[in-house]
Amino acid sequence: xxxxxxxxxxxxxxxFDEQTKKEVQNLIDNDPxxxxxxxxKNLEFGTGGxxxxxxxxxxxxxxxxxxxxxxxLSNYLKKTYPNEALKVxxxxxxxxxxxxxxxTVSEVFSxxxxxxxxxxxxxxxxxxxxxxxxxxxxxxxxxxxxHNPPEYNGYKVYWGDGGQIVPPQDGEIIAEINELSxxxxxxxxxxxxxxxxxxxxxxxxxxxSVKKGSFxxxxxxxxxxVFTSLHGTSIxxxxxxxxxxxxxxxxxxxxxxxPDGSFPTxxxxxPEEPEALTLAIKKAEEIGADMVVGTDPDSDxxxxxxxxxxxxxxxxxxxxxxxxxxxxxxxxxxxxxFKGNEFIAxxxxxxxxxxxxxxxxxxxxxTALTGFKWIGQMIKDFxxxxxxxxxxxxxxxxxxxxxxxxxxxxxTLLACEIAADAKAKGSSFYEELIDCYVQFGFxxxxxxxxxxxxxxxxEEIKQMLKxxxxxxxxxxxxxxxxxxxxxxxSISKNVQTGxxxxxxxxxxxxxxxxxxxxxxIAARPSGTEPKVKFYxxxxxxxxxxxxxxxxxxxxxxxxxxILSELNL
Length: 568
Description:
- The chain is built from 17 helices and 24 strands.
- It is α/β, with parallel strands linked by helices.
- The strands form 4 sheets. Strands 17, 18, 19, 20, 21, 22, 23 and 24 form an 8-stranded antiparallel beta sheet that branches. A 7-stranded mixed beta sheet has the order 1-2-6-5-3-4-7, with helices on both faces. A 5-stranded mixed beta sheet has the order 9-8-10-11-12, sandwiched between helices.
- Residues 44-182, 217-305, 317-436 form the Alpha-D-phosphohexomutase alpha/beta/alpha domain.
């Protein structure tokens, strides 16, 4: 008997419920390929915690895999804080089974004598991050799979600082989990230890969001917003935050306002995908709105569309919104006077324009591996420094440090402040972005994501990245490769001179080529989806805003040439 079948048969004992045993037996009897997919490994923590397809099996999200996680985390908390009365806070999003899974997680914590604060209804991820510190908890959990397809769910772990767990802590927790058998899970709830929470936390979070995201923008009465929650949790927060900040002209896409884990009106609930904002952009054209905002299911990512130079709605990418938000915040700090300890941050696959902006303003620039947990960790590691703001190319941004994860709630308000103020001054969000290109260099990026599902897909991704490393690119569109940054070996090598520098970041499966003209090509596997991602960044000088269209066209042509060269 093979290992997979043996593992599956261990799920046929009396510890598991009847429905689970029935499904497992059916897989053993009738579907060996699906059995293999579900039991060939244990679901692992990735960039954004643990995510996976829901269903029975060790490689699936279910009450037992999450119960085992929670039991291991409970044991770890007790070892870490041996003499403290432990507290955790738990939130969940709109996905199928999120409410019942959050209840299961709460019950396991309570069975381990840990006080649990459980949101009584779905809430955003940024509010969960905020609530960890607000309630003085030792840890927090949010049940979400972010923007993944409907069949997914997930489990993100936050620590007492409100940020996600990072190495070595995540490894220590995983080791604790791996020591357990499923039969070690304590499912017998102590209901007196589970405390429902709702509006009392909402009120404090909303007030903090308005305070951090408002800058006295002019022109709010004349600024029209179309907002869609894409069937997710942001409907519980963003409309109220905008209202409290003085935005009265907010049109909500009602067809997408009802939380629904099936996401019936979109192919993917991901604001990175233009299709997701189709209904909102159509509405914006009908009513002459200035801005469209759409958020993912747990409200940590936001997509923004604004009117371009032709007056048409255009979806901006995460790099574009990030640089303009950061510039706006830097201007606010500059007007008050820098204190000398400020910094901005982004990730290694995001636009290099962030570093140019930091140099121009004389503030510190920090860069991290992909994933907002690393930016949150910076704030923890450098308590003497003051975080202004920062983001990553994948449509995430964080305003200040009151939330320690990407925050679409406060970022939406900040985007509206920038756009309303610009409009009142005779400019626009888009024109302000072009001005950034004139000041700091015109950087244009492109992301290519290739989906490769299942066991064979994982092997294919592994092989693609191996080929990318073992057959190095020598030039890109006629520009010689100058540096190869290998985050697996922590070595950055100048291939022209042979000079090597160490990379002072944790090891990661990322490879980046940089050419003599500053073009960058990065490759990495996704930490949350069965995808391999290629990030292209090009740049040019933009002397005046009047040259924008021609230079933009040149960069688009260059990117197309790069994709052709790489067969992407």
